[in-house]
Amino acid sequence: MSGVDKAKNKAEKLAGKAKEKFGEATDDKGKQNEGKADQAKSDLKDAGEKVKDAFRN
Known about the structure:
By secondary structure, the protein is mostly helical. The chain is built from 2 helices and no strands.
């Protein structure tokens, strides 16, 4: 996994966490769910990159 991809995934995960916390603070269930979805998408991308790395080696 390249460092750029890793940084993008980490940034996306942090943005998702922030969005989730904002949703909690404003009692906005839609924002909370959107933040959780962003985090899950980031985790899935990260897992995909790790699989690709495993096959490269």
